[in-house]
Write a structure and sequence with these properties.
This protein has about 150 residues and is of the alpha/beta class. It has a domain at about 5-35 and about 80-145: Rossmann fold (3-Layer(aba) Sandwich), CATH 3.40.50.450. Helices cover about 50% and strands about 15% of the residues. A five-stranded parallel β-sheet has the order 2-1-3-4-5, sandwiched between helices. Helix 2 (about 40-50) crosses helix 3 (about 55-75). The model has no long low-confidence stretch (mean pLDDT about 95).
Length: about 150
């Protein structure tokens, strides 16, 4: 049985590759999907498909529509959602994706550092599992296959 895991979170470092590598090391049959990780592509997709927009507001709105469509399709097909919150970047998209997954009743794992316990307490309470590291998240998924 292969499971599809949606990896929600910031797109500015290689945490997704870390998750995939750790899953591979444990021989877990997982397939990973994620938001568009090419930041320029994500920001410009509205104009690339729909043409030049009259202002940045409309450019962002068009891109958001298409990015949200993509996320909804991939998340609906996912068996599990991992949402990683870190210290370095604003986490608005991660919070939106995690809350969407929870509303869709997707099994959800939140990864967040100890320093974010308080600001994420309500979201963590709604997720299935909250952990502090990628290793812990992979161990939670690995437990499914025991």
């Amino acid at each position: 049985m292969e499971l599809t895991v949606y990896l929600a979170g910031q797109i500015h470092d290689d945490w997704r590759e870390e998750v995939a590598q750790k899953a591979k090391e444990k021989n877990l049959p997982l397939h990973f999907v994620a938001p568009q990780t090419n930041h320029d592509r994500s920001d410009n997709i509205g104009e690339e498909i729909l043409g030049k927009q009259p202002s940045n507001l409309y450019k962002d709105d068009a891109a958001s529509d298409i990015n949200n469509f993509r996320t909804q399709v991939l998340m609906q097909k996912a068996d599990i959602v991992i949402a990683l919150f870190g210290e370095k970047y604003k986490q608005w998209n991660t919070a939106m994706d995690a809350s969407t997954a929870i509303a869709m009743n997707k099994p959800t794992i939140i990864i967040r550092p100890e320093s974010l316990i308080h600001p994420l307490k309500e979201l963590s309470n709604k997720a299935n599992v909250t952990v502090e590291t990628v290793d812990q998240a992979i161990d939670v998924i690995g437990y499914i296959f025991e």
